[in-house]
Specification:
Layout lengths: L3 E6 L6 H11 L4 E7 L10 H11 L6 E6 L3 H8 L3 E6 L2 H18 L2 E6 L9 H9 L10 H7 L6
Parallel strand pairs: 1-2, 1-4, 2-3, 4-5
Length: 159
Amino acid sequence: MMRKAVCPGSFDPITNGHLDIIERASQLYDELIVAVLVNPEKAGKFDVDTRMAMIRESTSHLSGVTVDSFHGLLVHYCRDHGVEVIVKGLRAISDFEYEVQMAQMNRGLSGIETVFMPTGPEHGHLSSSLIKAVAHFGGNVAHLVPPPVLQRLHPREED
């Protein structure tokens, strides 16, 4: 039996912390879908197609990983795509407090289980928002994001 999971998020942009969770989850499931949430009420730095491209480029070395987008309820996406497990990364206890409520709601709505994975300690401080702020002010984020993200955060200026 194929074990299929989804790793959802906004990924604006994908960080090395996200990549850590995706790489580890891809070893546990036959198929892992990285699903980018489309939220028209939230303006991100990168549009959904760009976020998906950065994720595809950053995960191209992983077998069984696909990238998709969704809007609405995650449990509806899971039902429509035959996904049986949601994988969520946790950085700190504050993440757990919110995510456990979401997991309980998702289980109550659909019966789908959520698996929590702690991010590696070297990535526990990372957030997409923080990385965007640091990059905006010229800080070095090369060690915090995959190369496809870095290229888009700091595009080479034309002469």
